[in-house]
Amino acid sequence: MFSKSCLSWFSYQARLNKMKQKILIVEDEFIVANDLRIMLEKAGYKVCGIAPSVVKALELITTKEPDWILLDIFLQGDKTGIDLAGQLTGMGIPFIYISANTNQGILEAAKATLPYGFLVKPFREKDLMVMLDIARYRHEQNLKYNQPSQPSLHTQIEHIAEKQEPVADRLKQISAALHPVVPFDFLWITKSNPRTSTKDINMVRLADGKFSLIDNQSLLKAMNVSVRDFKTWNNSAINANGKSIFNGYDFRKLRMESPWTQALSDHYQLESALITEVERAGEWFQFVFFNQLSDLYTKVHTGIINQFSKSLEIIVDKVVYGKDPVSGTPLPASNIIEKPVITRVSDPENTQDFNGITGNSKLLHAAFKKLELVAPDDTSVLILGESGTGKEKIAQTIHKLSPRKNKPLVTVNCAALPLTLIESELFGHEKGSFTGANDKRIGKFEQADGGSIFLDEIGELPLEAQVKLLRVLQEKEIERLGGNYTKKINVRIITATNRNLEKEVAEGRFRLDLYYRLNVFPIELPALRDRKEDIPLLVDHFIAKYGKKGSSGVTQISDAALNELQDYDWPGNIRELEHLIERTMLLTEGDTITHIELPGAASANHFSSEDHFKVKTMEEMERDHILNVLKMCKGKVFGAGGAAEILNIPSTTLNSKIKKLGIKFEFVK
Question: For residues 526 and 163, is the Cβ–Cβ distance under 8 A?
């Protein structure tokens, strides 16, 4: 009787808390909006209004003062939910998107405005309640840590603009940051008033997805356009007449009115454009995003561009028309590329080292700051970064700095879990629950009770397991396979992935509600190519590390060799750098590394093809090894003499690895 009373009291308190929450629905489809209202009121929430447009929503926000907003993206009028989202962020009002569109472009645009959730139409009542619970939890954590409301894209562009790197390199990085939210195949930045084309920026997206900066002279040569024609065609900026979106007929009309646009679109097969202008000290600058797809740009993209007008101003001020951070002189024209100055770290006392992750770059310090902030709490953490950036070390450090440090940290590699045993591995099973279950098994979550669980490569988890994981996160309880009771657990969740989870969601491989539940406190680890200023420090660290083992007499590296490391792109990140330094030390005679054998074209000027080698990541080596064994077995995976038997792993595990590593049958022939 006492237990039932307690449950009733807690249920009453939960309902009372919901009743205190006023929700405004911003949705232009009345049937959808009314269904939402009925669901919310049934669950105990108070709906303070329904708005079909941004204008009406702003009126109701002023008079009703809602606590939450459910926000559709496409609304009546010229403004979209994306436009309203920027104002809501400034007002400090949390919101959740509701939309029928979950393609990657929409998700990227939505993510940039920092919503607390994203609900996909059509949805069930249960989906709405789960998303609201997740959103409230994320909002509470956000308030607790007082995380900045500035969209991450702006912060990213701000950081790139401040880098001590050539203009071309920074513009390529900015293009890569902008492209997910405003996709383009060609970007033209020009001073529109007073008109000048001498410092035009022409950024083209290549077939491999990378970006290339082309100066006007090279562009004219590639297009077979004379300088005289260029001056005639490009003597004025595009006259947009107040429009920003040019698709279909509008783009064809734009081509007729602007000969330079026509020449560009003919050469690069461009079919649509998005135009915006920024003003700096009385001068106007035009950003023209072109795309090869027709009818691509929508009001959503206009809203995003409006949201990030400050980012465009930074690009103009600090990258295109400012001072070069390397030389201090006015920035060179786009065809001039200067080498960055390599600076040695001379003050190791100011270097932060978290569990073996070393560096002085702003991006890494930002990650360390987040780590220090969240580690003492129980908040879920999602660690994002490419392979080789040190995600597992960050997870270990979070656990070590938390009150759970004396309890276990259980690490699970989701990519290595056999498909048929995932549920058993994570949640355990009872004896006899399935064929071969001869004993009771304690799952990873139960092993981590009181401590932390680190789910590495969470993006590899199958959809069926994602449903179970979400329930565990929500209910804080597990049920063993074959069991008939649940067990409460107290576990901190730390996850990591090198995948783009927004893309996985858009393509239906990752649950949207689980993504928002895990992405409560993201820590992004920068790729090594984005923090090259740390390379000298890292090299010194690895030389000292392997020098202590006594296998080499190397104690330093020459400036020339260090320059080679700075010029390389580091697809394998810090792990690749460490392996390369270790190998180079073993091959070096004397105490100084004077040259580096880098993979690919970077080493072509120094070594013959016979001497060339590639430092491979662990994943690449694993792929090659499996591929060689499969060739030896003539593609046989199962049974006697099969690759699984030779590798001494279950055939299900081998199949998972074959799929993950992208090994196709034609490679085995």
Answer: no
User: Which amino acid, one-letter code, is at 669?
Assistant: K
Nearest to 343 by CA among 360, 324, 318, 331: 360
Tally of CB atoms within 10 A around 203: 23
Amino acid at 167: V
Residue 156 CA to residue 17 CA, distance in Å, equals 37
- For 220-252, b where at least 16 C-beta lie within 10 A, e where not — what string? beeeebeeeebeebbeebbebeeebbbbeeebe
Q: How many alpha carbons fall within 13 Å on the CB side of residue 4? A: 1
Its pTM stands at: 0.63
CA 518, CA 459: separation in Å to the nearest integer?
11
Six-digit token string for 259:
């000969």
Q: In this structure, are residues 290 and 297 in contact, taking their beta carbons and an 8 Å threshold?
A: no
* Beta-bridge partner residues of 98: 72, 119
Find residue 191's DSSP bridge partners: 196, 285
What is the rounded CA–CA span in Å between residue 472 and residue 491? 10
Pairwise CA distance, residues 519 & 339, whole Å: 38
- Sign for the CA dihedral angle at 56, 57, 62, 63 comes to positive
* Dist. CA 53–CA 75, nearest whole Å: 5
Output phi, psi for 47, to 5 deg.
-90, 115
pLDDT tens digits for 372-417? 888 888 888 999 998 888 899 999 999 999 999 999 999 999 888 8
Residue 119 has pLDDT above 90, yes or no: no
Sign of CA dihedral 314, 315, 320, 325: positive
Do residues 496 and 547 touch, judged by C-beta distance below 8 A?
no
| Rounded-to-integer distance, Cα 491 and Cα 489, Å | 6
Residue with token string 């509600």: 513
Averaged over 325-346, what is the pLDDT?
43
Task: Please state, in angstroms and rounded to a whole number, the distance separating the CA atoms of residues 50 and 494.
Answer: 38
Tokens of 199: 């410092």
Contact 388, 575 (CB under 8 A): yes
Residue 325 has pLDDT above 70, yes or no: no
Q: How many Å apart are CA 83 and CA 300, to the nearest integer?
A: 8
Query: How far is it, in rounded angstroms, from Cα 410 to Cα 206?
Result: 43
Q: Residue 467 carries which DSSP code?
A: H
